[in-house]
TrEMBL record:
Keyword Transmembrane among UniProt keywords: yes
Domain of life: Bacteria
Domain named Glycosyl transferase family: residues: 208-378
UniProt-recorded name of the protein: Glycosyltransferase WbuB
Keyword Isomerase: no
Annotated organism of origin: Ornithinibacillus bavariensis
Keyword set, alphabetical order: Membrane, Transmembrane, Transmembrane helix
């Protein structure tokens, strides 16, 4: 009998960023592997609903023509806010609207609900859906919450954080299976669920086979690239320092950035007349990957808080997918990936001078850049292809 799955997620095609792309891949590949899959999501809104009025983001005709299996609920919020309280109300609105939708489709039985977190509140609507549709729940953890909230120093109410930790523990305990996108999450989660026996499966972000290419076409100028979120976790002060240093060394720096600190970064560039930094508006995944392929080196940052040592940023996987060596200010899981597979160099995030020195060194060493690029291609094909890794999720779904 064909298995049926309902995916519940805030982020889904055409939303830019790792989360939206991840859920799109899961949806498409489960259906291609004869698992009848639907999605319950919201209207695209991150980082701004108006962004998706541009038709270039709707670049997958297969999904554009999909009307039955993609359920999009409307939301009132027009823009992703930097205010923690505004975000909480935003997440609560999503939770309520998801519960209403689940009630409407309650007669449609699912074998599994796959729910993606954060935000955590969507998970609790999934547990209500579990009761309504007589299904099991696969919890997909993309970030440790509320630790990540503390890591960006966005909230400091001890009583509220204690309550959030209780919700987090219950979330892990009530799930029938757990999927993580970073190996660094596993110990944290097992400590929370203690001796409960349930599968915890590592499925990283990654490319589809058609996104991998052996060809790279460089501009005449040596260039460095940064793509993705510029928010509280990405350490904007060090990104500014990198931008200034690259400008001083006459190295082109391409940035495709979005997020709550993107405006601050743009103001800094204008104030300091950093004309060597080229800022691009948020664009499609395909165009972002094209820019990465045209760049000689890519950079990534995370701030120093301990929780971020467990994270494997999606942008790093995108960089190595494009065979673009990485120079990063990260530690823990991300640093191990970069250093162990020799796809670049990882430094303590405060070591901006060492990062700049390494970029200048690599600029003069084309053979080393070629070696790193070849290592990128090798590790992506071995560990990160979606067409291969989806089998782990299928194994959970078909096990019962």
């Amino acid at each position: 009998m064909t298995k049926k799955v309902l995916i519940m997620t805030q982020n889904f095609y055409p939303v830019i960023g790792s989360a939206g792309n991840r859920m799109k891949n899961i949806f498409q590949l489960l259906n291609k592997n004869n698992i009848e899959t639907r999605v319950l999501t919201i209207e695209p809104s991150y980082p701004n609903k108006n962004l998706y009025k541009n038709k270039e983001f709707w670049d997958d005709e297969e999904l554009n023509n999909e009307t039955k299996n993609i359920i999009r609920v409307p939301i009132k919020n027009k823009k992703f806010s930097s205010s923690i309280f505004s975000r909480l109300f935003f997440y609560l609105e999503i939770m309520v609207r998801f519960i209403v939708t689940l009630w409407k489709i309650r007669k449609e039985k699912f074998d599994y609900i796959l729910v993606s977190t954060p935000p955590i509140f969507i998970v609790f609507s999934a547990f209500i859906g579990k009761f309504l549709t007589k299904s099991k729940v696969i919890l997909e953890v993309r970030d440790l919450w509320p630790d990540s909230l503390l890591g960006v120093k966005a909230f400091d109410s001890r009583l509220t954080i204690r309550f959030f930790r209780y919700l987090e523990r219950r979330m892990y305990q009530k799930a029938d299976a757990i999927v993580i996108n970073s190996k660094g999450f596993e110990k944290h989660i097992t400590d929370k669920i203690r001796h409960a026996e349930k599968p915890i499966v590592y499925i990283p972000n990654g490319p589809r086979e058609n996104e991998i290419t052996s060809n790279r076409e460089f501009d005449r100028e040596f260039s460095v690239v940064y793509t993705g979120n510029i928010g509280l976790a990405q350490d904007i002060d060090r990104l500014k320092a990198i931008a200034k240093s690259l400008h001083e060394h006459n190295i082109v720096f391409n940035v495709i950035g979005y997020g709550i600190k993107a405006g601050d970064f743009a103001d800094y560039l204008e104030k300091n007349n950093l004309i060597g930094v080229r800022v691009y508006k948020p664009t499609t995944r395909k165009k972002s990957l094209d820019l990465i392929r045209q760049s000689n080196i890519a950079i990534a940052f995370l701030n120093d808080e301990g929780v971020f040592s467990t994270v494997l940023p999606g942008k790093i996987i995108d960089y190595i997918t494009c065979k673009t060596p990485v120079v990063a200010g990260v530690k823990g899981t991300a640093a191990e990936l970069i250093n162990n597979n020799k796809v670049g160099f990882a430094f303590e995030s405060r070591d901006v001078d060492k990062m700049i020195h390494k970029i200048i060194e690599l600029k003069q060493d084309s053979n080393k850049l070629k070696e790193l690029a070849e290592n990128c291609e090798k590790v992506v094909k071995q560990e990160f292809l979606w067409e291969t890794n989806i089998s782990k999720l299928i194994g959970i779904i078909e096990s019962k």
